[in-house]
Amino acid sequence: MSTNDTETEFTDTEDTYVYGGGANDDAGQEGRVFTASGGDWDELVDEATALNEERIVVNMGPQHPSTHGVLRLILELDGETVTEARGGIGYLHTGIEKNMEFRTWTQGTTFCTRMDYLMPIFNETAYCLSVERLLGIEDQIPERATTIRVMMMELNRIGSHMVCLATGGMELGATTIMTIGFRERERILSLFEMVTGLRMNHAYVRPGGVAQDLPAGAIDKVKEIVPELRRGIGEIEKLLNENPIYKGRTVGVGHLSLTGCMALGITGPILRSAGLPLDLRRSNPYCGYETYDFDVITRAECDAYARYRIRVEEMKQSLRIVEQAVERLQHSVGEPVMVQDKKIGWPAQLSVGGDGMGNSLDHIREIMSTSMESLIHHFKIVTEGFRVPPGQAYVPIESPKGELGAHVVSDGGTRPFRAHFRDPSFNNLQAVAAMSEGGMIADVIVAVASIDPVMGGVDR
Question: Using one digit for the tens of pLDDT, what is the confidence trace for 133-156?
């Protein structure tokens, strides 16, 4: 199954697809069918017991060091060969989407940022872009706020990819890769803390712009860490690119062809490892990405090694975008970072105060001394929020793991009627069976690591 000469073709049923068509296959042979739908796994165990077959059904997870969180993998084994694999999810269910229905539109960012906790800036941006489309203010977002969003997203992309490579290397025994990956991510987290007041779960991107402008010294900090990140990426390449042990574990492992990706709705580095240059920053630009110079990286091997190489190259492209964003930010100092409509934009004059959370005493003093009306407005916009016209909007963006989309529905009130996210980890996990069946148990670890799922995004 994991050889490169296999082809994939659709069957008549909508939730299965077939691997078949090798040159030496007998005429008329249908091929192997992978089911992409759910089901009761206990039925398989009962069937195996009734047939008295020596099949072993084991659980890998949900508490397991190689399942990227609380992912349950149910494996049917014949010796050490995986004959059937299925993922079990739901162990980290947070109710984030439901909780957002009971908070204002702006407060929703404090929930969605916690979904995929390795890419919080992307979660916030996808949600805010959808809210802004409903409000009809997409053209009113300040250019400086949009540029800050781009810079923060690309740094977040690097941080997410670093964790992917670090944890994947650790699971294969390459502990040096783990230390390098987390060391480089730490540089990014220190910058995020400087800009937003928090290392994770920032709620920094808000409908209408961002919570506050970059603090003094932030641009210099970015300029400082960019070459350091570039050196760290180079260290990873030197250690892994031509490492015979690493290539032996990843080349030809976790194979998923382009047709398989299309059948399962797979996006991101997995899809680009099958040769399709689909990147929403290019195909469906947002936040002005059409004005940035960068390349969409693809490979044709369709395996775990190709996904590793793609992520490394994508980090380099992100650094290119960050450098372009920094240059633009240097020329827009002093410009607003929140929409000028005071009935929509939360007070953007906030600066990170002594508590590190943005409660600026200077701003509180200003609104309290200006007029009673400004204080009342501040109180109402924070507690009640703004109203969003009835309707629905869906805006997809290119996250580190693939297409991340926010579908928000408004009934004209101050809270979302419904907020639902198309999280790439949820869709990409469907590939576990196709990547793992027919391989060894050890290859399951490699396949899951190459998918890079985060269960916070899966179990919303």
Answer: 999 888 889 999 999 999 999 999
To the nearest 10°, report the CA torsion of 438, 441, 443, 449.
120
- DSSP labels for 165-209? HHHHHHHTT-HHHHHHHHHHHHHHHHHHHHHHS-SS----EETTE
Question: Do strands 205-206 and 81-88 pair parallel, antiparallel, or not at all (unpaired)?
Answer: unpaired
Peptide bond into 62 cis (omega under 30): yes
Measured CA to CA, the distance from residue 100 to residue 416 in angstroms comes to: 7
Q: What is the pTM of this model?
A: 0.83
Q: How far apart are CA 440 and CA 83, in angstroms?
A: 9
Angle at 299 between CA 269 and CA 186, to 5 degrees: 45
- Cβ-contact 260, 270 below 8 angstroms: no
Q: What is the pLDDT of residues 222-238, one digit of tens each?
A: 999 999 999 999 999 99
Distance CA 202, CA 440 (A): 40
